[in-house]
Amino acid sequence: MVKVLKNKISTEEIQTLIDYYNLDNNRDERPDQNSKQCPVNSVDWPTRGLTQSLLIKSLGYNPEVERAFYLEKNSESHYHIHVDTYYDDPVEDIDKKYNMLVPLEVDGYCTTVFFKNYYNGSMAKFTQKNIGRFSYYLKDVDGNNSFVYDLKELYMKLKSNSSIYGGVHWPVTKEFIEQVAELIKIRSGKDNIPIIKDYTKIKNFNDQPFDKDIYNKYLSGMNYQDFHGLTLDKVVEWELGDIILFPKTQLHTVGTTHDHKLHYTVFTR
Ligand SMILES: [Fe+2]
Q: What global pTM score does this model have?
């Protein structure tokens, strides 16, 4: 069950976390989101103590930490339904374990939408769209976010001075080509999680259309078919001071109604 713990983190503690995010080491800056991984295995990780104390205060014990990271999104970011289970090594008793989400900056109506659906395999995205590992949304020559089915194919086109790929005009500039190359590098790494189209693998899948009113209110802009067979559990509205604990195996997604948001997330084991 998702738990929202009210007034669990002070303004000063939030600022301490933001200050560490703003140091520009380990930043991963992309057109649609910025993120930063904390060096969880390093002894001189400055926010280790604070992270541990927040975990103990929220969970009641001191868990092993798999990842701690920041994610900053703007209104144009694209999302998928996913689970935050584990990367490589399966977690013991995963059904009983929680991850921690701490809102740090809230601009507009920021939510996380949780479903009464669960999956206990390794980290995965769930979608019915025809996307691959190297699919992405990027700004085309007109400044619109357009779909790139395969960044590698786009890269080859741009390198041969061709501006059209997938029926869209792309800027043939040095900056854009470098950005595409950087995204290919990121997507080639092991953090790129599998995409699951077969929803029969999801617990509580019901093969019914998803509630259209809920979709319109919190999720519009996403692919409606991606929600087919899922059931809403809870829409959690972010408030500063709250700590959100959610089961590691629970499907969820970012709502689409925010303007800008920054959060700190810790995956436990
Ligand atoms: Fe997540």
A: 0.86
